[in-house]
Every structure is written in structure tokens, then in C-alpha cells.
Amino acid sequence: MPAIEYQGSSAPFSFIGRSILSRRRDQVHAMDAGQHHYASLDQELDAFQRRVAVLFQDLAASAGGDELLSVSWVRKLLDTFLVCQEEFRIVLFNHRAAVGRPPLDRMIADFLERGVKALDVCNAICDGIDQLRQWSKHLEIVLVALADPRHKRRGALGEGQLRRARKALTDVTLLMLDEKDAAGSVLSHRNRSFGRSSGSSSSGSSSRDHHHHRRSSGGHFRSLSWSVSRSWSAARQLQAIGNNLAAPRGHEVLATSGLAVGVFTMSSVLLFVMWVLVAAIPCQDRGLGIHFSIPRSYRWAAPILSLHERIVEESKKKDRKNSSGLLQEIHQMEKCAHHLMELMDAIQFPVTEEKEVGIRHSVEELAQVCESMKGGLDPLERQVREVFHKIVCNRTEGLDCLSHNPE
Question: How many domains does the chain have?
């Protein structure tokens, strides 16, 4: 009887023991899987941070001499942004289950909203690139006038040539002054985004009776955002992009498994790239008074803060303070046009050989600037468009993740 009772009581005890052990094994496996997941996320975030740091270190290293803010350097900057954006998208995609959970959902939503504001900056920059084309066309008239094949021999510069060249220089000078004095009002009258219609458009200046004609090429491209309005301000738009952008605190990092750091990194990169574009290219109400609050502990902080400091210093130079854009080619264009105008104003006929040699040398410098602009503006505009569309696509994916993820 006691033996029977013992056997009867031992069967459920062994079952309970096996059940407890089984649950413990499941918990251990779950903990191992969770630890593996967090380890994988840590590795991806660390790799992303290292990648951003290396890209901007390379960008800072390539900005020596006159390369900083040149067309080629700005194109490298946009390439860097596109790489960072794609790698950030992959990190979020690999861990999209966490995107819809607070507080990360709010951070992602704020980042996507910053992207919307950046679209208007892209629109304004494309308008500014188009303005640079207009300036280049006037300067090409100068080159044609002063490099006519019929007047290659020494002492052959004629009064008609110089008159035509002087008029083209005056026209481009007035265009540049309009850009500085009216803060891009000419551009703001164009009600366009990335869309282009056939034919030509013109806009007038109330202070001077001259017109700026723009030929369009290709068909009509549907715009993905509204064109900037007349009251739009690049300075205010940058302030809006950087509003409430601060490094995540310790509890936010823990609550998001570190993803908050990735969001802050990409938000800072977005703000910096838009700030550089506004600094370099003519656009409405340019302003560079943006403060970057990036802790030095981030490995990518040093190159970005260094570039920011160098660009601000460049803007403070005496010959750059009132420039319509800090692009190196704009500076060279203004300098060549001003020098050539001074030479032509001092000419008396017949033209001496010394004066003619000076003009020819200035024309060669101007030709190099125009060639650089001609070869660089189209690829630069295509990259700005690519940035625009990449932001739109990533916003669509981000909103989809936010809407489908459980709380």
C-alpha cells in the first residue's frame, strides 16, 4: 500500500520536473536568441557609425585648397549622403519590428518630417543651379566676343568686340546683384519644382529693365512636392529641419536598443548636407546661422564639425561675405568678371599689346571656369534630384513600417 502510494505520487512529480526543465530550456533558447538579436543590432549600428565617420573623414580630407565647396566636392558630399541614407535604411529594415514601438516611433516620425522639409531645399537648389546656367551663358558670350577666330592676331581687338563683351559682363553682373540684393526674388517668381514645361519663361526685375530667359529641355516631369513660394526662406527651412534635434539620452538609447543613435546620426547628416547646399548654391534668403549640437563622443562628429567650421570661416572672408553662394566656381566667376571689366574699362584705342595680353589671360581663366560649370552643373542637378527621390522613397517605406508595426 505504501509502495503503491509512492508510485502513484512519483509519476506526476517526474512529469512536473520534466515540464519545468523544458520551460527553462525554452527560456534559455529565447534569451540566447534575444542576445543574438541585440548583438547583431549593436554590430550593425557600430558598422553604420564607422561608415559615416569614414565617409566624412574622406570628405574632409578631399577639401584641401580650392576643392572645398567646388562643384566636384559638393557632388562627393551628395554621394556620401546617398550612401549613408541607404545604409541607414537597411539597418531600419533589418529591425523594422522595433520601428513602431515607442519612443522609436516618434523619433522615426520626426526624422521623416525633416525629410519633407529637405525636399523644398532640393527644389530651391535646383532653381539656383539653373540660375548659374544663366550666368554661364552670359559669360560664354564674353568668350565668343573676345576669342573670335577672325581676331586671333595680336593688336586685333576691336571696339565692337569689347563693346559686346562689356554688355554681356554688365548683364551677368546685374543678375548677380539681383541675387544678392533681392535674396533670390527672381527665382522665387518661378512657380516650378522639378517639373519642366516646353517653351521658355521670363521674369522681370522692377529695378532694371532686363529679362532672364530660360529654355527647357525634354518633356514634362511630374513634381513630387510643391515649388517654394515667394515668402519661402532657406534660413528658416534649415532652422525647421534642425528644430529639436538633440543627441538621445541614456534612457532613450536603452529603450530603443540603440536605434535612437542611428536616427540621430542620419538626422544630423541630413541637416549638414542641406546646410552645405544652401551655403554653396544661390537660393532665397540664404542663412548659415545653424548650430550643430553633436557630442564629440560620436566618431563622425569631428569631421562634420571641422567642415562646418571651415565653411563658416570661408563665408566670413572679405571677398565672400556678400557672395550669392560659396561655390568655388561662383567665386572664380565673380573674380574673373570683375577683373576683366576693370581691364576693359581702362582700355584706350588702339589697344596696346600689354593690355591685350592681360585681357587674353583673363579670358583663358574665365574659359576654365565656364568649362568647369558646363561639365559639372548637369551632373550636380541630377544628384540633387536623386537625393530628392531617395528621401521620398525612404519616407514611403518609413510610413509603411510605422503603420503596420504593432504598438
Answer: 1
Distance separating alpha carbons of residues 269 and 169, to the nearest angstrom: 39
139 domain-assigned: yes
Burial class (CB in 10 A: 0-12, 13-18, 19+), 147: middle
In this structure, is residue 88 part of a structural domain? yes
Q: Confirm whether 9 is domain-assigned.
A: no
Tens of pLDDT, residue by residue over 77-88, are 999 999 999 999
Query: Range of 383's domain?
Result: 44-404
DSSP letter string, 355-386: HHHHHHHHHHHHHHHHHHHHHHHHHHHHHHHH
Phi, psi of 195, deg, nearest 5: -80, 145
- CA–CA separation, 224 vs 118, rounded Å? 13
pTM passes above 0.85 = no
End-to-end CA distance of the chain: 58
pLDDT in tens, 257-289: 999 999 999 999 999 999 999 999 999 898 888
Cell triple for residue 232? 519661402
CA distance 325 to 357: 30
11 domain residue, yes or no: no
Q: How far is CA 156 from CA 146, 339, 351, 357, 389, in A?
A: 10, 21, 8, 12, 52
The DSSP letter of residue 219 is S
One-letter amino acid at 251 equals H
Crossing angle (nearest 10°) for helices 71-94 and 259-280: 160
C-alpha–C-alpha distance, residues 218 and 189, integer Å: 22
Q: pLDDT tens-digit profile of 358-373? A: 888 888 999 999 998 9
Between CA 277 and CA 39, with CA 294 as vertex, the angle to 5 degrees is 110
Kind and range of the H or E run holding 162 = helix 159-181
Question: How far is it, in rounded angstroms, from Cα 336 to Cα 42?
Answer: 53
C-alpha cell read off for 293: 549640437
Going 246 to 252 to 254 to 259, the CA torsion angle's sign is: negative
CA angle 383, 384, 388 (to 5 degrees): 115
Residue 135 backbone dihedrals phi, psi, to 5 degrees: -60, -45
**Beta-bridge mates of residue 211:** 204
| Amino acid (1-letter code) at residue 383 | Q
Which has the closest alpha carbon to 171: 139, 207, 202? 139
